[in-house]
Design goal:
Elements (H helix, E strand, L loop, with lengths): L5 H8 L6 E3 H12 L5 H12 L6 E3 L3 H25 L6 E2 L1 H12 L5 H9 L8 E2 H9 L9 H29 L3 H32 L2 H4 L20 H28 L1 H6 L2 H21 L16 E2 L3 H5 L6 H17 L4 H16 L3 E2 H24 L7 H20 L3 H15 L1 H4 L4 H16 L23 H28 L1 H11 L3 H19 L3 H6 L1 H22 L6 H24 L6 H16 L4 H8 L6 H30 L1 H6 L2 H20 L3 H5 L9 H8 L3 H20 L22 H24 L2 H20 L3 H13 L10 H20 L17 H28 L4 H9 L2 H16 L6 H29 L7 H27 L4 H17 L3 H8 L7 H28 L1 H6 L2 H20 L3 H8 L7 H7 L3 H20 L22 H8 L1
Antiparallel strand pairs: 1-2, 3-4, 5-6
Helix pairs in contact: 2-3, 3-4, 4-7, 5-8, 9-13, 11-13, 11-17, 11-18, 18-19, 18-22, 19-21, 19-27, 21-27, 22-23, 22-27, 22-28, 23-26, 24-26, 26-29, 27-29, 30-32, 30-36, 30-37, 34-38, 37-38, 37-40, 38-39, 39-44, 40-44, 40-45, 41-43, 42-43, 43-44, 43-46, 44-46, 47-49, 49-50
Length: about 1200
């Protein structure tokens, strides 16, 4: 026999030229040589033995020969051991006693036998005294013996010890099982009778309760029940009680527990015997198992061990419960609290954010590792249930945060879906996976911060692909759990029916996707797609998307008639995506990975679909019935929207995105309408256009819009621009009025804020922190219609991307919807094109924080105010009384939000007219003359007095309303002259005209309107319908009573040297400097003077910046003790710092009020404001822990 050439063999096996072989490749080689696969663990042990523990289970070329010889030794030895094991297995059950295992160790290892390796084997077992299987012992027997050698006396002593301990353990187990299984059949009968009696008692109680509601006390006094009541329908539930939630949580975990116990029973009895049993026998066995588990848990203080049948072995699971279910949705706040404490601990150790994340990720992954048996799994399941039940009860009792009625309903919907999904699965692991996916996605990124949700989806998809290989596509999804309620239904039952309809649709989509990936038509379709070139596949993909959109827009009858066409269309789309991904993946054997990846994406899309549907609150019965019918229609007509979204990437497959895109199109249509109105006015002349009837004007504009749309669809923008005439050639200027669209602005804003955050983390100063953001240069083609179309497409692309990446939550959708509706409405309400373009652009991008706005928007706001004021002057600014809109549909939340905004906008238009009337009122000339004669300080004093007088009015009283108007007329005269004085001081080279003053005041009003609108948009998103109705009535009352609060704020605010914003900014800079000095001194004291001198200036600034960020975080979280520790102990007796801080909060506020009063008096007398300010030198003792706190309070 020749010597084998191991180098040549290694080169032949190393096809990827990696320089090493993995254990999987070694196992394939071993199987081909010995015609029987060796356990992968044996291969791992051989590699560890030859190549070392640090080899990472990779065999290099130099060790290959020794590894092959070690594998050969283990193959031969394992075969010999198997025969010895069968000789000792006298019962033929595949297991031997512990004493026999010791004898086998002695026989196999011979003179090298050592009790050290035997004790290590015994210690590695979960249950030390159970019988031993061959798979459990073979790896230890094949290993090279190590440790001190043992003689025959040591062996005999160990064997005698095992026999004595085994006898004692057997006696204990026998006594316990004898007590536990005492007449188990009788216990099962009692349990079944108890369940039956409980069910009858509940049914009888419901009957009597219904009779009590109908007949009153007579139903109790005269208990005359009839047989007809047995068929009486149960009254539906309208609300969720605490007991409903607790009962549903129990049902959810009971479903998982039953599946685990059933799998253990089948494992104990054997699959063949289990299948041969009748349903009654299986049910009886399950009841026995439940009783045993209940008795064990009560006997062992909640710990469930040895719940399987006596003499059997618990099942092994490759993943523990946390790896199957993920983090608890109900307990996720507790988990986050623990993680935050761990994060703070690591931060105190000096770890960076990146290091902390890696440490937490590693700790999380370690928790997911490890195999468990069914006993441990059952125990963990019981503990998790108890933990969630305690947390839920504490929330229901209000110990943490009281759950409202709406929150209870939301929790019930999520929990019922989890219970339903687990009930529909056959295996325990699949049931856990579907619940885990639902829980992680329902909590979003906060709970799934380590991306376990995606991993669970991938594992579940892998199981589905494997289990359904070779199965036929079911014609219909039928399951007892998916049957609708037949009795009287309330809101709760309707919600349950909606969830059942949703799950039926999702399961149908999943089954069809699996069939399209590995069904009988999948291979042929993929073969046809592979024959196409890349360009042909791309073109065909576009055709498929178009055909799918066309099918989606058909009627229900056409959809049903063309289901086979739609099925083939999606089959080709799935095959196309499959082939494209296969060509990108060069690794062999990647076909299953692609199928699993696509199915996992479908599962994720379905979770997003469910989240969007279930997140809507306060729905009525009619709405729920409509949603259920819609889901049924999607199921029966096989819309397959989620499947289409995955393979075609078509945003138009979701109703949500359809609705939002339609609103976006309507907004741009309103712009086109204004442009054509302006163009036709120029072509016909202003006089002729004004004399044209409104209906005729509308027809002309509509016809022009139809012609423009034809040109736009044909990409003939040059022809479309000719429809406007000669006055619209300057597209750059017109598009500059609009500026960036909202989505692009938000994207750019995120980039700017990230840069600011990055500079802060590096200890650098922020450039232009207190100023707006510069707008990027807008590219223009010179064609208005082309530029407008590009702007629309860009906004649509960004909007759809945002929705698909997580912006499809109910709050985000409501925000986007009401904003688009408002933008369209405000555009339509403007009198001409210029105002419409400016108003739309400002409305899209407004931000309440000054340093988050576009700098160019200030110019646009001024231009809009100038144009609106000119139009008010030309029209005579007639006072118009607008009629309030009709009350919206009480069941549609979006309509209530829109109604609030409409009333607020009506109020804003009234205020704008009111201010314009004041500014253009010639009757105020005398008052303005008087205001011009007095000094600026006197004018400011008079404005303050007028403000105090107005604050004392009751603006809902008619007399006070007239007084309010009089006060504002006087305030307007003083404000005009005060503004003139201020503008002259800042613009010495320019002549300040009345129009300049008027426009600046209208600009101020526009800014206040924008701020109020943005604040309202943020508030209404979190309001209920009742709250929205109250806010709407308040806006209506404010309009009718003409409070004109925004006008009053503009006219009565301080307008002297140093405005409110400038004073606040200066104050903020002052206290920022004080904080920096304090923290810098604290840092120097903590490091010591020598260490401080060794640091470079950049290192000092970096440390200071980290300390500032940490101080802000602790102050924000109100952790004052930790804030004190941040400063250290060096400030306890520092008198100079206490002088810096001055008085305590109460005394300081009192003195501040006195100083402000004296300041007003000196201004009224025409004296300088600071000549008579007293030095506040009183020193109050402050302890070291309140330095930063006091400094922040003073600010």
């Amino acid at each position: 026999m020749g010597i084998p050439d191991y180098d040549l063999m290694f080169d032949l096996l190393d096809t990827k030229m990696c320089g090493y072989l993995t254990i999987d490749e070694l196992q394939d080689f071993q199987t081909q040589v010995y015609f029987a696969p060796l356990d992968l663990r044996q291969i791992e042990a051989a590699v560890h033995l030859v190549c070392g523990k640090n080899s990472q289970l990779k065999c290099s070329k130099e060790y290959f020969g020794n590894v092959v010889e070690e594998i050969g030794r283990r193959v031969l030895l394992e075969e010999s051991i198997a025969w010895d094991f069968k000789c000792l297995d006298v019962l033929g059950c595949g297991r031997i006693s512990l004493s026999s295992a010791l004898l086998l160790f002695k026989c196999v290892h011979g003179q090298q036998f050592s009790l050290d390796i035997w004790n290590r084997f015994v210690s590695s077992r979960l249950t030390s005294y159970d019988d031993v299987s061959f798979d459990e012992i073979k790896l230890w027997l094949c290993a090279v013996p190590s440790g001190d050698l043992s003689n025959d006396n040591d062996f005999d002593n160990e064997r005698e010890k095992l026999e004595n301990q085994g006898g004692e353990k057997l006696h204990e187990d026998w006594s316990f099982l004898e007590k536990l299984q005492e007449d188990s059949s009788l216990l099962a009968q009692r349990e079944a009778a108890r369940n039956n009696e409980s069910s009858l008692l509940k049914q009888k109680s419901r009957k009597r309760l219904r009779r009590l509601e109908k007949e009153g006390i007579n139903a109790i006094l005269f208990d005359q029940e009839s047989d007809a009541e047995d068929d009486e329908t149960r009254k539906g539930r309208q609300q969720i009680g605490a007991s409903d939630l607790v009962a549903l949580l129990k049902s959810k975990y009971e479903s998982l527990r039953e599946k685990l116990l059933l799998e253990q029973l089948e494992h104990d009895i054997g699959e063949g015997m289990w299948q041969a049993m009748s349903e009654g026998e299986q049910e009886e066995r399950l009841i026995h198992s439940k009783l045993r588990e209940r008795r064990l848990s009560s006997s062992h203080e909640g710990s469930v061990t040895h719940s399987h049948t006596a003499g059997s072995v618990p099942m092994e699971y490759r993943r523990n419960l946390l790896a199957l279910l993920g983090s608890s949705r109900i307990n996720h706040e507790d988990v986050l609290d623990e993680e935050n404490k761990r994060r703070e601990m690591l931060e105190n150790e000096g770890k960076t954010d990146s290091e902390i994340h890696n440490i937490l990720l590693k700790e999380w992954q370690e928790k997911l590792q490890g195999n468990v048996d069914s006993d441990k799994m059952l125990n963990d399941l019981c503990l998790r249930y108890q933990s969630e039940k305690n947390t839920l009860k504490s929330r229901l009792r209000g110990e943490r945060e009281m759950m409202t009625v709406t929150q209870r309903m939301q929790e019930y919907k999520l929990m019922f879906r989890e219970y339903l999904k687990s009930s529909l699965e056959n295996s325990f692991e699949s049931a856990c996976l579907v619940v885990g996916v639902a829980e992680t996605v329902a909590n979003g990124n906060e709970i799934d911060r380590f991306h376990l949700g995606k991993e669970l989806q991938h594992i579940l998809a892998d199981r589905l692909v494997t289990e359904r290989r070779g199965h036929r596509l079911p014609k219909e999804i039928k399951h007892a759990e998916l049957e609708y309620h037949q009795h009287e239904t309330g809101l709760v039952e309707l919600y349950e029916d909606v969830i059942k309809a949703l799950e039926r649709k999702h399961r149908a989509e999943m089954e069809i996707m699996v069939h399209m990936l590995q069904g009988k038509d999948a291979s042929q379709t993929r073969a046809d797609v592979r024959k196409m070139t890349n360009e042909e596949r791309e073109n065909q993909f576009v055709v498929l998307k178009t055909q799918r959109q066309g099918w989606r827009n058909r009627s229900s009858e056409d959809k049903l008639a063309s289901k086979s066409f739609h099925f083939k269309l999606l089959q080709e789309a799935v095959s196309t995506v499959y082939v494209n991904q296969r060509l990108e993946m060069k690794e062999p054997g990647a076909d299953k990975d692609i199928a699993v990846s696509l199915l996992a994406k479908l599962l994720h899309q379905q979770e997003l679909d469910a989240e969007t549907l279930l997140a809507v609150r306060d729905q009525t019965s009619d709405e729920l019935l409509r949603i259920r019918q819609e889901q049924e229609q999607m199921y029966h007509e096989e819309w397959l929207d989620n499947l289409s979204a995955v393979v075609l990437g078509s945003s138009d497959v979701t109703r949500l995105e359809d609705d939002i895109i339609k609103l976006l199109e309507a907004k741009y249509d309103s712009i086109r309408h204004k442009v054509f109105e302006e163009a036709l006015r120029d072509q016909k002349g202003s006089n002729e256009w004004e004399n044209t009837p409104v209906s005729e004007r509308y027809n002309l504009v509509t016809k022009a819009k139809v012609d423009e749309k034809k040109y736009r669809l044909q990409k003939r923008f040059s022809g479309a621009v000719k429809l406007l005439g000669d006055g619209f050639t300057n597209s750059d200027k017109l598009m500059s009025y609009l500026g960036e669209n909202r989505q692009l602005f938000i994207e750019n804003l995120k980039t700017v804020l990230e840069k600011r955050k990055s500079r802060l983390s590096e200890g650098l100063e922020i450039e232009n922190e207190n100023y707006g953001i510069e707008e990027k240069n807008l590219k223009s083609s010179g064609n208005l219609w082309k530029d407008l179309d590009e702007r629309y497409k860009n906004e649509k692309r960004l909007l759809v991307k945002w929705l698909q990446e997580g912006g499809s939550g109910p709050r985000e959708v409501n925000d986007t919807t009401v904003r688009l509706q408002q933008q369209k409405r405000l555009t339509e309400q403007e009198p001409n094109m210029l105002c419409a373009l400016l108003m739309l652009g400002l409305c899209e991008r407004h931000r309440r924080t000054e340093n988050e706005r576009l700098s160019q928007d200030d110019t646009r706001r001024h231009l809009l105010a100038e144009e609106q004021f000119d139009l008010a002057r030309l029209s005579g600014n007639k006072d118009v009384k607008e009629i309030e809109d009709a009350e919206p549909n009480k069941d549609v939340l979006n309509e209530w939000m829109d109604a609030v905004l409409r009333e607020m906008e009506r109020k804003h238009r009234m205020e704008q007219r009111f201010l314009s009337l004041l500014l253009l009122d010639n009757a105020l000339d005398d008052l303005r003359g008087e205001a011009r004669e007095i000094s600026e300080d006197e004018r400011q004093k008079r404005l303050m007095e007028l403000k105090d007088e107005r604050d004392a009015l009751d603006l809902d009283e008619k007399g006070d309303q007239d007084m309010n108007h009089t006060i504002l007329e006087m305030a307007c005269a003083f404000k005009i002259e005060s503004r003139r004085f201020r503008l002259k001081s800042s613009q010495k080279e320019r002549r300040v005209t009345d129009d300049t003053i008027f426009v600046s005041m209208v600009t101020d009003l526009r800014k206040r309107h924008s701020d109020e609108c943005e604040e309202m948009l943020e508030k209404i998103l979190d309001m209920s319908k009742e709250e929205l109705a109250a806010v709407r009535m308040k806006e209506i009352q404010t309009y009718k009573s003409e409070h004109v609060e925004n006008v009053a704020a503009v006219l009565l605010c301080y307008d002297g040297l140093g405005t409110n914003d400038e004073i606040l900014r200066a104050l903020e800079n002052k206290y920022d400097a004080l904080r920096d000095k304090l923290l810098l001194e604290a840092l120097r004291k903590q490091l010591g003077e020598d260490e401080w001198q060794r640091l470079s200036e950049r290192e000092r600034q970096l440390r200071l910046m980290k300390m500032k960020l940490e101080a802000k975080r602790l102050q924000r979280e109100n952790k004052l003790d930790e804030l004190a520790r941040l400063l250290g102990d060096g400030f306890a007796a520092d008198v100079n710092l206490r002088k810096l801080l001055g008085e305590n909060r109460e005394k300081y506020e009192q003195q501040l009020r006195e100083r402000l009063a004296r300041r007003r008096e000196r201004l009224a007398k025409g004296l300088p404001p600071d000549d008579d300010d007293e030095d506040l030198d009183d020193i109050e003792s402050l302890d070291g822990k309140s330095l930063l706190e006091s400094l922040d309070r003073r600010y």
